């Protein structure tokens, strides 16, 4: 059994997710994570390396790009927004923690890579036209705006009717998906 497969590793990871999500990257110390996990701080470093490494390993929101971008292209805007609105709620904490920590060098680089590989590139593969790359990037920005509205600002009025939100926001997204 490797060091990475222990109860200690899992306890540290669970504590890290809880504290990073609640308090953010800057306000969460290795000592606080260790205390919450009931371990010595040295074990956090032994199991994960640096605080940045721990953050990057535990604060992930993996989009299933195949499922997210599946379906007819002419209905994809609505389908994407509908699928994103059906998340289980844990994504908002991860999104907020990543957003708050985005100014830390390695974390910002990781976010850029996740943005490119998890959203832009898979959507771009579905799009036609010479401006497909630009439209995929703008679509990613529009989706980021949706998350900002829902999770940063907490606009519950906009989310009160998920179908109406999916229909209207999906129509905006569809404008970027469909070439001019």
Give a written overview of the molecule:
- This protein is mostly helical and 180 residues long.
- It folds into two domains: 56 residues, Homeodomain-like (Arc Repressor Mutant, subunit A, Orthogonal Bundle), CATH 1.10.10; 113 residues, Tetracycline Repressor, domain 2 (Orthogonal Bundle), CATH 1.10.357.
- The protein has eleven helices and no strands.
- Helix 1 packs across helix 4 and helix 9 packs antiparallel against helix 11.
- The protein starts with 6 loop residues before the first helix and ends with a helix.
Per-chain topology:
Elements: H1 7-23, H2 30-37, H3 41-48, H4 51-58, H5 65-68, H6 76-85, H7 90-100, H8 105-126, H9 132-152, H10 156-159, H11 162-177
Helix pairs in contact: 1-2, 1-4, 1-7, 2-3, 6-11, 8-9, 9-11
What is the total domain count? 2
CATH class membership of the largest domain: Mainly Alpha
Assign an overall shape. Answer: elongated
Figure out the total of helices.
11
Structure class? mainly alpha
Helix residue percentage:
over 70%
Provide the succession of SSEs. Answer: HHHHHHHHHHH
CATH domain topology of the largest domain: Tetracycline Repressor, domain 2
CATH architecture group name of the largest domain: Orthogonal Bundle
Q: Summed up, what is this model?
A:
With 180 residues, the protein is mainly α.
